[in-house]
Amino acid sequence: MTATPLPPRLSAPTIAWWGSLAAVAFGGVATREAASSPGLAGPVWLNALCALGMAAPLAAGRRHPVPAVILAVSAAMAQTAWLTPSTNLAMPFLALLTAAFTAGRYASGHPKSLALLGLCLAEEWAGPIAVNGDPLWDAVFVSLALWAVWLLGRSALARFDLARAERARRDAEHRRAEQIRAAVTAERHAVARDLHDTVAHAVTLMVLQATGTRLVAHKDPDAAVTALASIEKAGRQAMEDLRSMLHVLRHDPGSPEGPPPTLEQLAALVDAARSSGVDATLDTGALTMELPRPLAVTAYRTVQEGMTNAARHAPGAPVRITLRSTSGQFTIAVTNGPPDGDRPSPTTGSGTGLAGLRERVTALGGTLTAGPQGDGGYTLTATLPRSNA
């Protein structure tokens, strides 16, 4: 079912401009009516002043309903009692109807609105009836008309409140939808970074292993077979990672995730690099406890990025991975020595892996440093607060 469109909202200056124009027109018509009445009493300018006072609900009733209604009723009473009688005039009656509608539509609070309606009724009974001596039936008719118009104003106020609540609800739904879309986009970006890290690491190892296999295939066939088995294993692992990440992309990002990487998986990652010819060592110290998922994933990606960069930019250099945890922070460091001059030339990367890792670490409130060492090596260090994990 299609939702009912909400009425358009006019700006406050536009409403004020039209209200002022209507008040001026009302005052002009009321002045002309009083001036042409056979019962004209008092100067025309004083009648015109009362006519403008009766037009106050049109000009200021929306912003200041109480003063506007009081001014309109007072002006109508002044004209009836001391100036031109309202017995044969239509504009004072229209002024009271406008005041009653203003009391119902814009006066905040039911008691205040009823009090203003009572003021309009009092003017009708005290002015035309008590002063002018109009028939009683006229007062009853005008009183019923004022009450009906007041009810119309209260109904308009109720519809306005419902429309405002509906707008607020739709605005909240729109903001919620935007937040969900932003969360989905952020999640997909994170998966894309993981995808890049995984593929880059696996392909780099496979390239290095293939290069080593080509160099030793004629001299040591058994080593070549072992290297090919490592290439196959790395390719299968990359396919598994790709399949898992594509599952996340195709399904709800809020679905339950798999278990976070463990120290055993880090050790397996280092073993895979070692089997490809990288002199890699893993030092976890006394770290035996399970890590929170954000720390575990970030540690895995940091080690993966550091080893990939070491294999790409410093082939043949030893790599040392160090994990340390204290009560306040968790540190992952990947350090490699200078490149071996006898190995093939380093390969170049896209440069986005380190930027994505920095964004991941910063999101957890940590810091990422990367830079060369004095001996020509390179160190990548991620420091994360455990309290923010």
Rg, alpha carbons: 42 Å
Count of separate DSSP helical elements: 11
Shape: rod-shaped
Percent of residues in β-strands = 5-15%
| DSSP, total strands | 5
Q: Provide the structure class.
A: alpha+beta
Give the termini distance in whole angstroms: 45 Å
From N to C, what is the helix and strand string? HHHHHHHHHEHEEHEE
Average pLDDT reading? 75
- Stretches where pLDDT is under 50 for at least 5 consecutive residues are 1-7, 251-257
Brief account:
The chain is an alpha+beta fold and 389 residues long. It has eleven helices and five strands; from the N terminus they run αααααααααβαββαββ. The longest helix is centred in the middle third of the chain and has 81 residues, at 136-216.
